[in-house]
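Case study.
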Amino acid sequence: MPVTLVKERFPSKVGEVTLGATAEQGGTRDSVVVVGGDNLLPFLHFEGKVVHRPVIAMEVTDIVPPWNEAIKAQFGDVLDNPAAWAKKCVDEFGADLIYVKLIGADPEGFNRSPEDCARVVKDVLAAVGVPLIVVGCETPEKDNEVMAAVAEATAGENLLIGLAEQDNYKSIAAAAMVHKHNVIARSPLDINICKQLNILINEMGLPLNKIVIDPMIGGLGFGIEYAYSIMERARLGALANDKMLSMPMICTVGYESNRAKEANESVEAFPDWGELADRGVLWETLTATALLQVGASILVMRNPAAVKLVQHNIADLVEVAEA
Amino acid sequence: MGLTGLEIYKQLPKKNCGECGTPTCLAFAMALAAGKGALDSCPYVSDAAREALDSAAAPPIRAIKFGNGSVLGDETVLFRHDKTFYHPTTILVHVSDVWSDADISAKVEEVNGLEFDRVGLHYSMDGIAIVNESGDAARFAQVVQKVAAATEKSLVILSDKVEALQSAVPPVAARKPLIGSATEENYETVVALAKEQALPVILKANGLDALNDLVEKAQALGYKEFVLDPGSRKPVETLANLTHLRRLAIKKKFRPFGYPVVAFTTKNEPLDEIAEASIYVTKYASALVLKASKKGQVLPLLTLRQNIYTDPQKPIQVEPTLHAVGDVNENSPVYVTTNFSLTYYSVEGEVEASKIPSYILPVETDGTSVLTAYAAGKYEPEKIAEALLNCGVVDKVKHRNVIIPGYVAVISGKLQEKSGWKVIVGPRESSGIVSFARSLSL
Ligand code: B12
Ligand code: SF4
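After joint prediction, the assembly is written out as follows.
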């Protein structure tokens, strides 16, 4: 007997956000990336449409990153050259976007000027045709200056810039508004703060389709379950027509997963954990694939080997099931 | 589960005779709905009513037990935030009877060795699925016995051929394997074998409609120890089927699908296979058969399983009492952290690696991380001082130095004032503890 299946008909969908701008649109990108738009729970093709597949943004920093050798070795000699590094991510590893993190701005580190930071971003823009995500050094006052300079220098490029947080969102949202960029709104694993922040940013005049949510994640083995459930709730909220939760979500997978000891320690140090080569790659991969199941739209990743596996996983999931 | 008093009342005789110990049928129904009393107290309830109530009261997904402590199913929600998931996906490694004896032994040895310790938790692989790919019944029976002798873990015995199952299963029935698969063609014999040996059996059909038919027919044989296999072998289809089965069981209490579900991976490259497996671990597979079995490949998957199946209401915690690491003495350093198990074991691992015997005091923070606790006002200097002074360490060390997490450096002045101890700010990440500890001169 045919079974009557339960197919949810959700009243709403995840909002769409367009990143980047082509020459006609006032920018210089070869093509744009659109995220969001889905009216279903992740990859359940039987109840809606996967409008835009999830995308991978690869991380590029403006100083040589302190990552483990297994990751660094895959990039060869480009890690001291953000433009060449970004190009490699796109040409060789198939990155959909580049995520530039301006760590060099850190007042307790290189303390680079906002102008220098903007120049790095311009260099990367010149080197690749994909849209860019740009964040600062996670020192709020400095980031406000840096992002204002970056936003201005790249006006028209429709970047995704961050990070707007509950106690520091005004300057960055203003910079995005004036220079026509999108904003990452980050909240500490909390649905209410997430909504509140979106309301505040929206009240300043930035439209909802210019906001992407960073729910903050924990990596595999270090709190991923909190992110998993917060994101699942947010996705259900978006589908149930909660407009302040309906933005696509970005997850800093590479950063969180690679902080774990399990992603870095050799088999000699932990014989019971097995070879680092597989373990490290999978630590980042599973952090990504688990969050794909609860609605991640943009995965920020760093290990090219993990990127490849996640690309396969996404391809498998967006493939439309045969009837 | 979840029947209302009125729903139960409808099934009662409505004699209001009081023999059940409550004055009226309605009162009795209300008591049953509240989980008090047993249906048997009413002498007049009809067999039909008893069956209706029993099946309505049964959990939405039946619990199926097999092997060495494996429990499948018995889940009650679709999303872990609605309550929790209860029975972590049972994960089994595929072993084929076309392999050489030496390869089989090596694989079983490898699976036996899949034991891991991290952050105070122990993970292991649950068992082995022996698959009859040779088509040869005698060979299959021989391999099943060989594997059974070589491992204590749970076993799944899989063949398309009735004769192969008939010869392989009975000798190892005492191990309570899960057997399969019963299909449209052979279900009568296979279910009969399962019933006779009192073993759970996988029902496999191609697609959900066919599976529904098969379950109905198999149930009509008077047996209910089933695990379902909707037959799909493509990730996106398997995800859809796992979701449909879980939704119908939970939201509609659709009885034919009220059984646990087994999934099989299809990717051949091991890392791709683990990524595929992560889909089924997050989305509803009760059991999962996979080929990859290297430690470095399996640990990430078992970690994900543990994470997804932790109870969202209760972070895993450690006793907020003084812990000694190594052969401590009166000069040993004293670290304070929180009682969130993840935080505590991150610190303990590094303190151990420093090879300097030390004390660690996890302060009671309701199982939250350092910054979460600090932000929530659960890691205040007053509280830490009190824990420090009351935990007994005062009598155990002769120095008065306490090391705090780098993330809460701001509390050092206040803590020093409240406790009278000298506060040393440690590194932010626990990974900095080894070099930090070496540089300490207490
Ligand atoms: C998961 C999480 C949660 C979970 C709780 C998980 C838990 N059981 O603790 C939930 C969702 C419940 C939560 C809630 C809140 N959170 Co929260 N949360 C996080 C998150 C993402 C990860 C925390 C974690 O598990 N870390 C892993 C553990 C192992 O780290 P850890 O305890 O710090 O331990 C490390 C080090 O400190 C060091 N260490 C530990 N002890 C010691 C001791 C010594 C001596 C030394 C040397 C080192 C050391 O070793 C460990 C490994 O390196 C962080 C952000 C992040 N990515 O870090 C935010 C974060 C901690 N949360 C934050 C906030 C504000 C909150 C809330 C107050 C706000 C809210 N969201 O409503 C609530 C409070 C809830 C409450 N009332 O109890 C903020 C804190 C801000 C601040 N700087 O004070 C953070 C930093 C996010 C942010 N950037 O805003 N949170
Ligand atoms: S014994 Fe049965 S019939 Fe009599 S009151 Fe109780 S429930 Fe009703």
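Observations recorded in class. Residues B 12-13, 15-20, 24-25, 28, 42, 44 surround iron/sulfur cluster (ligand 2) (CB under 6 Å). Chain B has 16 helices and 17 strands. We will return to this complex in the next lecture.
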